[in-house]
Amino acid sequence: MTEHAQLADIFERFATQQAAGKSPLYATLSRTVARTPELLDLAAGTQLGQPAPNMLLGAVHHILRRGVQHPLASFFTGHEELHEARADALLTDFCRRHTGQIRRIISTRSVQTNEVNRCAVLVPAFAALQQQLDERPIRIVDVGASAGLNLLWDRYTYDYGEHRLSLPASDPETVLTCEIKGATPPLSLDIAGFVRPVGIELSPVDVTDPEATDWLVSLTWPEQTTRMRTLNSALALAARTPPTILAGRAEDHLADVVAQTPADQHLCLVFSWSIYQIFGSPGGRERLSDTLAELSQHRPLHEISIGHFGNPTPRMIMAAYDGGLSRSDVVAHCDVYGTWLDWLAKPANQPGT
Questions:
Q1: Model-level pTM?
Q2: Which DSSP symbol is given to 271?
Q3: First to last CA, the chain
Q4: Which residues are bridge partners to 328 per DSSP?
Q5: For 42-90, what is each residue's pLDDT tens digit?
Q6: What are the pLDDT digits (tens) for 167-205?
Q7: Reading across the β-sheet that carries 164-165, which strands appear in turn?
Q8: For residue 225, what are the CA distances in angstroms to 9, 38, 216?
């Protein structure tokens, strides 16, 4: 298969498997790229390992958000539906006019989306963990932290429908909404029982750099206006008190984090759709488990991971490691964006644990 054919297939699959039903605009534009050799040539400039559809369309969105005048702009504001018949000419013309800028963006930047609303599904897991452990404080380490916005989970207000959760430092204007399905999850937790968290990220996003944070916002899809507002609000909170993030490969930091966490603290590693980015695919989940089992020879560890793990519906896994032995359970199913949570009344034991 030629490079063009491979790229065209990537854009077609993005349109049908990811954008369909969530972003009609991006579904239409992705199909346009898939059938336009000139646009495929441009998309081929994306950095190795980065998703070309997210990068190319994010670059277009980024330029338009800066006030560039073009007929394509009105479709990115949701004021008008873009039909296939017009998409080819409009997208091709826009990309021709801004080829140099698009090439610079997609060849130097990466997709580092920081989905703040996932905190709404993590908080019940933190509450469940605290209920299981003794009174020693818990240290949360977010592995693959991006801008570190999930490290600020105690700064947000949570709306679970019949239950609204406000923590001592919650910002009443930054509200994360999550629909509860299935069993009622644990939502009672003592913030004093958590020490300041830390993140690990290969290339951390500087939340005090407007250029870096503006790119994060541009990576949201145009129709996701609520998600965009929440992200902007969380970024404003982060800029006032930036989170602590260790820069570098997770493999290079994990052992140090384990060794340097005091024995009078529980240590919990959190992976939110980051396992395969760090440990590779297939087999990333197994390699992570082996790594944590080895590290647990030195001290007990806890893990909270969210991802698909080969399943159509994302799930949350909670695991404990001690002396090289482990146990893990699926405790919930959830949405990629954290908009709903199906907490399982009876956790499902993971095979091989």
A1: 0.89
A2: E
A3: 40
A4: 319
A5: 999 999 888 999 999 999 999 999 999 999 999 998 777 899 889 999 9
A6: 999 999 999 999 999 999 999 999 999 999 999 998 899
A7: 164-165, 157-159, 175-177
A8: 28, 30, 14
Contact 30, 20 (CB under 8 A): no
For the CA atoms of the chain, what is the radius of gyration?
21
121-148: per-residue pLDDT in tens? 999 999 999 999 999 999 999 999 999 9
CA distances to 35, 96, 110, 174 from 9, in Å = 10, 22, 21, 39
Q: How far apart are CA 61 and CA 65, in angstroms?
A: 6
CB-CB contact of 278 with 307 (8 Å): no
Q: How many CB atoms lie within 10 A of CB 252?
A: 12
**Can you give 204-257 as a three-state secondary structure string?**
CCCCCCHHHHHHHHHCCCCCCHHHHHHHHHHHHHHHHCCCCEEECCHHHHHHHH
Residue type present at position 228: M
3-state SS class at 323: coil
Q: Which residue type is seen at 172?
A: P
